[in-house]
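User: structure tokens for this one?
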Amino acid sequence: MTDARVVRIERLDLAYAPRPWPFAQSRRVEIDAHFARRKAERPALFNGQVLMLYEHAVDDAVFRGSYLKTDYASFLSWIDWSHPEAGVRDSFSQGALRSADGAFLLGVMGPHTAQAGKIYFPAGTPDLSDVKGDKVDLTASVWREVKEETGLTSADVEAEPGWHSVFAGSQIAHLKIMHARQDAVTLRERILKFLVQQNPPELSDIRIVRGEADLDPMMLPFVVGFLRQQWQTGSGRGT
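Assistant:
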């Protein structure tokens, strides 16, 4: 498993500064053929525009970075081909939902999605809707994804200030802890009721995670790294 390093970040300063991505240009024929095969398997896939991080630095608890624009087919191919060195990182925000009784709640990606079966917090790959002028707004992105995937809003959860940025190989995940006002079981039932109203739902299930015994091989390295950091520092309760 890829090692994960968690850094406490006070603020994200992210620029939208598009430039060509050589990987997408040089492997265009292969990418198009690969996406055609993937779409045949999962017809719901859509080749829209997404954002990828191509430079970054951490300075005095501020994460600074710049994003380029590419098509989802290129992004998906890069993931499926085990993230070959291409001068980019997959960098996104996630809402780390935490119940009133201290558990974390994660979603299982639905069978129609590209990452079917993977388990992580509500999230989405940044796209053009996250661009505000010349900036990329991952705070707005995380609130939007939490609402779309769980039905929860700021009336239901309170976000902690700052971020826990997890560096795990080619991925940099910015996690914002969101404290819910309900216990884990009640919160899970509420989210599941929301999911049955979607067609199809982005998530197929909600997992309650209280400690090491609840970890699952389908959880990505940055998720496991974040959870263990929370338990080790006493911010979460591990067993």
